[in-house]
Amino acid sequence: MDVTVSDPLVGRLLDGRYRVGRRVARGGMATVYEAVDTRLDRTVAVKILHAGLVEDADFVRRFQREARSAARLSHPHVVAVFDQGADGGTPYLTMEYVAGRTLRDALYDEGPLSPERTLDLLDQVLQALAAAHEAGIVHRDVKPENVLLGRDDHGDVVKVADFGLARAVSAATNTSTHGLLMGTVSYLAPEQVTHGTADARADVYAAGIMAYEMLVGSKPHEGDSPIQVAYKHVNEDVPEPSKSVPGIPAFLDALVLRATARDPAVRPADARVFLRHVRRARTALRDGVDDPELTQDLTAFRRPAQAAAEHTLIAPLEQIRAASKAALSPSVALRPDRLDDGKPADYADVPEPHEPESPSRAWWLRVPVVGGLLAVLLLAGGLTSWFAGIGPFTRVPPVVDVAQKKLPGLAEQSGVKFVVAGQVYSENVRKGHVVRAAPAPRARTWRGGPVQVWMSLGPEVHDVPRLAGASEDRARQLLSEARLRVEEVQTAFSDTVGAGRIISTSPEAGTPLRRDGAVTLVVSKGREPVDLPPVAGMPYDAANSTLTALGLKVARTDAFSDQVPPGAVIGQQPQPGRVFRGDTVHVTVSKGPEFVPVPSVARMPVAEAQSKLAAAGFKVQVTRNPVFVGLNVVVNQTPAGNARARVGSVVVLDIV
């Protein structure tokens, strides 16, 4: 999986709708990214045309034709196309996102597939191609990279992608554009190479090549350059898969050979016809029986036509003898076949010439002949010994679990040439040692010929990805891409992680696990609700302990109170009810009554004294002195001036 952080398109919002994520794949015309459709909140695949091709109107038209062609197909095994557009002059289209891997990844990881799995995958591929052929569309680029493998409860689910080279059959079917051969050379039908044309039978040919590759683990035609491979497609038949993998039934050989016949007229007419052959083969394979009738039907095209009979001219024995004698005696000539009167000539009338006895040849004249015979016998004996002993053939030595550094010495001893074909994971073979070979060990092969070996990468190990904060669906997708699985989903409340998001994993992120290792997800239920009790009137310490035990935070404010004893809670905010763990509760704690100095108002007019005391927070009571004369001047106050009294208490004024 290609993830490129430096890619300028990563993180970009296409057309104000599609948020581009990591890069998934890169092809000859476009790059595919994982993206999120922000309008519908779903994951999609976005295919964006390469920047260097945007200026080429022909490529842009082909890119747009892909969307129109693929959008016409609605089938469970065809990747759906959702939308098409352009952002800042950059054409793009959005497609169904298929989580999983490609058939190429499966072949790289697992090597040859079993006949049962091969036919199962081929059946689904042909269903998709049959739907396309019935719609008048030729895929033109069938290959393992364009076969996506998902999983469900029943096994592999195939989705055929990239109709980028597809074109309606009613349109022109020339495969070359500006001299460029479209398609992948390893899967091109011969007529695509020689004539540049393709129809449904070209897809059948490519599917047959893909079937061979699934059964054998390698392509039928290899070469140092694309031209060499194309030449072999045109001039060489695809070999039977059983020649490379013994044990493959004859009807499977016949199935592959029929689909990959070089003459398109011999192949199944389209994917629907090929699918019928495949399903008949699946039935025979499932029942564990051979199907000679199927083999005969599929290989009928290979029966050699009866050679044209050559007429043999037979002469009478007497005529042959006479001709021989005439050759020895030039004085005697054969008569013509018929006389002038038309009657047959009587060869008995021809006189036999005298044959002189051959003189005995000298012995020294016979020495070269005898010597030549002896040389021929010695050469024949030598060749026989060479073929029986050293010969052009040898056997592949046992190489499984042999270290790579030991292969050169083993090759020198056995007379073969080891070629590292790839690296695969193995649970049983140590890293750097041979997992398998083709041809298989003990098989007969040409001396000096290549033997492909696959080296072990050791057990397949993948790190647990970082999933904290991701949605559960996204977490499952990332684990599937990391070749890991979800074992259990637990839920928990969280003050910091939103509902439906991953809080943590077990094992934690970065832990290496074997392939299909189990990971437990902890999914947030959101914040935990709690019932807030009343704490007014409670001592602050008791109120604080009660709220803290519920997972709430407490914020304290002190205030004077004439009614609430010092240290007790005057009030709370929010009021009792439903809150969430982690919320803050504000409480006001009483400092008791407030005492302040009483203003001195002696000798003040009563009105002025009342105003000054009221401003200080006191209540005023006026009484007349026994010697009251009507001056209304304060002569005495209780409490006395500058004495401390509780705010709101009564100050008594004595006036005269």
UniProtKB/TrEMBL annotation:
Domain of life of the source: Bacteria
SMART domains: PASTA, S_TKc
An example Gene Ontology molecular-function term: protein serine/threonine kinase activity
Start-end of Basic and acidic residues biased regions: 335-358
Top-tier EC class: transferase
Keyword terms, alphabetized: ATP-binding, Kinase, Nucleotide-binding, Serine/threonine-protein kinase, Transferase
Pfam hit, one: PASTA
Region (Disordered), start-end ranges: 333-358
GO BP: negative regulation of fatty acid biosynthetic process
Enzyme Commission code(s) on record: 2.7.11.1
Protein kinase domain: residues covered: 18-280
InterPro entries: Kinase-like_dom_sf, PASTA_dom, Prot_kinase_dom, Ser/Thr_kinase_AS
PANTHER family linked: MITOGEN-ACTIVATED PROTEIN KINASE KINASE KINASE 20-RELATED, SERINE_THREONINE-PROTEIN KINASE YBDM-RELATED
Protein name, as recorded: non-specific serine/threonine protein kinase
Source organism of the structure: Actinopolymorpha singaporensis
Source organism phylogeny: Bacteria, Bacillati, Actinomycetota, Actinomycetes, Propionibacteriales
